[in-house]
Design brief:
single chain, 365 residues, mainly alpha, Ferritin, 79% helix
């Protein structure tokens, strides 16, 4: 476990360095390099404490190399988001462990999460535009996108594998399996796409409505909104006189005031509302379909027992790969996670196959 913690720091050092090497903005690249150096110092300190030579551990793990490959192919925004998600998870785990052992929570548990923002705030050369760009990229992409891809493929594979096995059990893999599998793929993918579209669209409409209400309040009662903004700054520890001056300056520009109020009072980042609901639906459709087509492919070329066995083999392979991919976020053993995914997927398919067999015998009998 101790070596694993050191490896986590080494991986973070490696990934921040890769972010720096592939960042076009010199100032943001400098921030990444500082983060890389900090993570390296953490790894060296931990290794020294455990009497382990850091030189023996300074190679990045396969997970870090996979994330770097994802960055090279899809863009390094994904790497940043995943890295920060991992640090948040580690921080939460440290807090939970201390609470369980009745240890004092000092606040240092979240240092890895806070440190990046601290560097940003201390860098006087970093412009507001660059900071906004950095924060937007950090929030809008990353681990969630990769995680959604893995889980979307898993949903498609497990649900359609179970459906195909149910029909195969009822028909001994002969008639209707291919048609049922393709129908299940299409129905499931369309359902996922529609659900994703509704989710994104409804969130956007809710936030847009709240933003419009805020604009109406700003136009009808600017004095009240100025007082609210001053109170928000005071709650952050800013002196009362300074808070009122800051609020008054912001209120001079209505559009800017609206932007600040939306962010400070409602906690809404307008940049996050620019995501396309249609684009989200399309991605959801594709990811589900990729998983759902795996158990169907053998029935396109053969049928009967041979097709069933090939479908089970292909699906088991897909389930193992999905389980292995999940370890990018959990850090668990690849074999354990992969085989666990195979076990549960095959169990679900076996149940539906058995039910289909019973129904098929009843109908034939």
């Amino acid at each position: 476990m101790k070596n694993k913690n050191i490896q986590t720091e080494i991986d973070a050092c490696y990934l921040y360095q890769k972010l720096a090497e592939n960042e076009g903005d010199a100032l943001i690249a400098g921030i990444y390099r500082q983060m890389s150096e900090i993570e390296r110092s953490h790894a060296e300190a931990f290794a020294k404490k455990e009497n382990i030579s850091p030189d023996l551990l300074m190679q990045p793990s396969w997970r870090a190399r996979v994330f770097n490959l994802i960055g090279r192919v899809f863009g390094y925004d994904y790497v940043l988001g995943s890295l920060m998600d991992t640090e948040k998870n580690l921080s939460r785990a440290a807090i939970v462990a201390k609470e369980k052992n009745n240890q004092v929570i000092t606040g240092s548990e979240t240092n890895h999460v806070k440190i990046l923002q601290s560097i940003l705030e201390k860098d006087e050369n970093l412009t507001g535009k660059q900071l906004s760009r950095f924060e937007t990229r950090h929030r809008s992409v990353g681990g969630n996108a990769i995680r959604a891809a893995v889980l979307g493929g898993n949903d498609g594979l497990v649900s359609n594998f179970s459906l195909v096995m149910g029909i195969a059990g009822a028909t001994s893999g002969q008639q209707g399996v291919l048609l049922a599998g393709l129908a299940g793929l299409l129905a499931g993918a369309l359902s996922m796409a529609l659900g994703e579209w509704i989710s994104v669209k409804s969130s956007q409409e809710l936030y847009e409505n709240q933003m419009q209400i805020e604009m109406d309040e700003l136009e009808t009662n600017p004095e009240g909104e100025a007082r609210e903004l001053a109170l928000i700054y005071m709650a952050k520890g800013i002196a009362e006189d300074q808070a009122h001056r800051m609020a008054a300056d912001i209120m001079k520009d209505k559009d800017h005031a609206h932007e600040v109020l939306v962010k400070e009072e409602l906690g809404i980042n307008a940049e996050e509302l620019k995501g396309s609901a249609i684009e989200a639906a399309i991605y959801s459709f594709i990811l589900f379909s990729v998983g759902a087509v795996i158990p169907v492919i053998p029935f396109m070329f053969t049928n009967g027992t041979q097709a069933i066995l090939l479908s089970v083999g292909a699906s088991a392979t897909g389930l193992f790969l999905i389980g292995a991919a999940i370890t990018l976020f959990t850090g668990k053993n690849v074999w354990f996670s992969g085989l666990r995914q195979v076990f549960f997927g095959l169990a679900a398919a076996a149940i539906t196959f058995g039910i289909g067999k019973i129904i098929g015998v009843s109908i034939m009998g």
